[in-house]
Design goal:
Layout (H helix, E strand, L loop, with lengths): L2 H11 L12 E8 L2 E10 L2 E10 L6 E7 L10 H4 L10 H6 L4 E5 L19 H15 L5 H18 L3 E11 L1 H12 L6 E4 L5 H7 L18 H6 L6 E6 L8 H8 L8 E6 L7 H18 L2
Parallel strand pairs: 4-5, 4-6, 6-7, 7-8, 8-9
Antiparallel strand pairs: 1-2, 2-3, 3-5
């Protein structure tokens, strides 16, 4: 199947349409940090306002490269955007400050059901099992209404990209996406389906549906898309990112990137020389300093290359 035909079939399955006009980014709180300005912001998503952090490098320069960073899951529904912004959680997920200090604007939104988008109300306080059950409702309540959680996720991701591209500090021709685990899956689908994405870094999310089913590996609620395997698997989705630069980061003992090598082999011919890179490490699913540095360095280089 031709890439455009497959992209159209996936967009129809996920009920995605052309991007809406860029939403305005409203600044709630502004703070000066070392090397960048941190702004707690909000923008209009598909089902209401989306809270996010916007990190803008110091210097007053205009038209900088930018990245939308989608946060992980990790069973921590009380932490979303704040982890990417380096304000909570694992420092090895603080992609925002690391990239901002490299001259890259970063927008880190909350996914549905996380941090300030929890049904129980905003905040980064731990609320135990209540968060788990309410997050499952994010999927279940949409399904009974004939909607998908992934549709909300990807529509919000498109709004984030639109808002970032329209920001006066951003070069819209040098905007990418990145994420680990759940955030990596969001990144992969967004990059595949939205050609405004110029480059993408996907960590801990290179595992096909067929491999997950064969191995008995969990499928995150947003990725539970009825009928998707009749249209495409994750290797097909990854192939749609071509010819744009794509980084896959995987690990030998990570069940969520169990067939990363096979995915790389399946899609490699679709990319120009050097555009597809696969960094495979020893270890499990969690990020390590080496993987974190690999993602940050690659994003900074890809951002700079887009502008040359």
């Amino acid at each position: 199947m031709e890439p455009e035909d497959l992209r159209a079939r996936l967009a129809a399955l996920l009920d995605l349409a052309d991007p809406e006009p860029p939403p305005e980014i409203g600044v709630v709180v502004r703070a000066e940090r070392d090397g960048y300005v941190e702004q707690r912001v909000v923008f209009a998503g598909s089902e209401g306002d989306v809270p996010a952090f916007l990190l803008v490098p110091d210097g007053g320069r205009r038209r900088l490269p930018a990245v939308v960073v989608h946060h992980q899951h990790h069973g921590e529904w009380h932490i979303g955007k704040s982890e990417v912004a380096g304000l909570a959680g694992d420092p090895l997920h603080a992609f925002g400050p690391a990239l901002a200090r490299r001259g890259v604007v970063v927008l880190a939104p909350d996914a549905p059901g996380f941090e300030d988008r929890r049904a129980s109300g905003p905040g980064t306080d731990l609320r135990g099992e209540d968060d788990r059950y309410r997050y499952l409702n994010e999927m279940g309540h949409r399904l009974v209404a004939g909607r998908l959680l992934m549709t909300t996720v990807l529509r919000d991701a498109a709004a984030a990209l639109s808002a970032l591209c329209a920001h006066p500090a951003v070069d819209p021709e040098a905007v990418g996406v990145a994420g680990h685990s759940m955030g990596g899956t969001t990144t992969l689908f967004q990059a595949a389906l939205d050609e405004r994405v110029r480059f993408a870094a996907v960590s801990g999310a290179a595992c096909t549906y067929r491999r997950r089913v064969a191995d008995g590996t969990a499928i995150e609620p947003a990725s539970a898309i009825p009928g998707i395997v009749d249209v495409a698997d994750l290797d097909d989705v990854a192939g749609l990112v071509a010819p744009r630069p794509l980084l896959l980061v995987s690990a030998t003992e990570d069940r969520y990137s169990a067939d990363a090598n096979a995915i790389e082999r399946a899609i490699a011919a679709r990319f120009p020389a050097g555009a597809l890179q696969h960094a495979r490490f020893a270890g499990g699913h969690a990020l390590t300093p080496e993987r974190f540095a690999t993602v940050v360095d690659w994003l900074a280089e890809a951002a700079a290359t887009c502008r040359t």
